[in-house]
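Standup notes
- DV: blocked on the single-chain target, sequence here:
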Amino acid sequence: MRATAATLWLLSLVAVFAVAHYLVPSAAELRLRSTDSFRSALDEPNELVRTYRIAAFLQNMSEAQLPDALEALEARRLWLSPEDLRLFTLAWARFDPAGALAHLSTWPDNAREMARGAAIYAWACYDPAAALQALDSVESKSERAQLQS
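- DV (later): unblocked, structure below
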């Protein structure tokens, strides 16, 4: 009876550690989920490291974190790659695809085309019908064609 109880206790202990390992984020993971980490990731020259760190933040970005993250992104607008912007809009479109498209449509000419393309792409990933409807509302045929491509 004692051997069975000890075995069950040991198995329970192993199960608790296994669950904690997979469900509780480590301190390093929590740091990567911070806006400060995102801000510094945007300055990372190594593309592989930058993408990893940006994605680590964006996987869990909340609506509450959006204003600070957007401020950091806009401060580095001139140096963003299409991939960086696409990752950001994919995270944003989870909770506000129309807002992402509307906001990025206000960017200056040199960045607006890439930003709007990333926003409509992200929107289409989550809700293709709504993204097509948004495209149909674009009055300029040339802008609509550009966004569709």
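- Follow-up: The mean pLDDT is 86.
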